[in-house]
Amino acid sequence: MGLLVLLVLASYLSYGGSVKITDAFSYQSAVVAAQRDVELLEVEQFDRKSVRSELRPYEKLLASDLLRIDAIAQTQDERAPVLRFPATREDYARLDEILHDKEVLGRKRFDDAVARNTLTRNVANALFALVAVLFVLLEGRLRRRVEEGRSLVERLQRAFISKRRDLPNVDLGSVLISATRGSSVGGDTHDVFTFDRKNGMFMVADVSGKGIDAAVDTALVKYSIRTLFSENDDPGWVLAKFAAIYARSAESLESFIVLFLGVIDLETGRVRYASAGHEPAWFRCGQDVVLLPTTGPIVGMEPAPEYGTKTLLLGKGDVVVVGTDGLTESRDSRGRQLGAEGVAAWLTELSGGAQATAEAIVKRLRKRSTRITDDLALLVVRYMPRLSAGVVNPAGTAGDVPSQPQLVGGEASP
Predict the structure, then answer these.
(1) pLDDT tens string 113-171
(2) Which of 32, 51, 78, 86 is most buried by its number of CB atoms within 10 A?
């Protein structure tokens, strides 16, 4: 009976500490979400001058996150402030200041929970040592609890990383690699989704920093871009609006985002894209490969940048490849960078489906470099329309592949 009591006590100490860490983490996440909601709502209300009906979804989102903060708060100081709509600029400034204080409290609560969990876990391990026979039965559960405490940040990153969605008439391939040993936490991400029946969006972004800060910024990129696409489907316009939001919300002057944003017409293969100082993207038609130039500065470098929108036409089998600098800046054993031209040379030698192409690039990268020292996001978009008899592909006749890549030109963002 005594051994059973020790076993129950050890299990309680191991489990209770992990629960407190999870609660503290949930509170911190709710505060960060509310901060982002305030920034988005303020931009919509005062910069974009949206009407009341257009502001209500943003207000509801902010109100729900404030309620979530209250639900997790343990003390009066941790409780969320009250905000009445419509709010003034002074109200937003006050709320932002209060939320900043809550974030500090949340960070302390998280650190304290980790410290307490470390102590209780040590006690629990000692108790398990006294009941070695029963420890064998509970070893798996203890290991899961300990691992849960160590992987909170990783789970945050996985929650924020976009899952690749299938697009009609498009073959997609992707690879996402973190260079941090033992962790999936990285600032490189990609996203694919359809925002109407005719168009699909694809994006690759490289966020500065690591850990929680980078994970939060990847979430900001994903959800801000998706929200802005509900207003306008021009990539240059969306990128300019997002850059303005990020300039107001970035916590550090050194923070930046390198980003490629494309929209593909799923019926015609027409691609419009905007590129914020991004590593070169590649357009492959047959064995010909063209580098796609950037259309504006890196996000975070200027307070109100402008971005152009460029257009190209994809025929059947044509491919757009977008990667982060973990690809082009990789080095071989002699310290030589691969570079954009090196990737272009690889693409002329590769064939097959989009995922096979993405995996072949990574295989060559691993063979060329002893180990990957930077995060890498890679997205391959291959246009594969299902053409009916007599239907003409806008890039040629039905089933034809153009002999040269068709770059249509640029458009100024509105």
Answers:
(1) 666 656 565 555 555 555 454 445 445 555 665 455 445 545 554 545 545 567 899 99
(2) 32
Length of the chain: 414
State the sign of the Cα–Cα–Cα–Cα dihedral 122, 123, 127, 128: negative
Condensed to tens digits (0 to 9), the pLDDT of residues 195-238 reads: 788 999 999 999 887 666 666 677 778 888 988 998 899 999 99
Determine if the pTM surpasses 0.70: no
Long-range contacts of 367-370 (CB under 8 A, 24+ apart): 368/330, 368/332, 368/338, 369/330, 369/331, 369/332, 370/333
Residue 12 corresponds to which amino acid?
Y
How far, in Å, are 120, 302, 365, 379 from residue 187 at the CA level? 33, 20, 19, 15
Strand partners, 253: none
Radius of gyration of the chain (CA): 25
Sign of CA dihedral 225, 229, 233, 239: negative
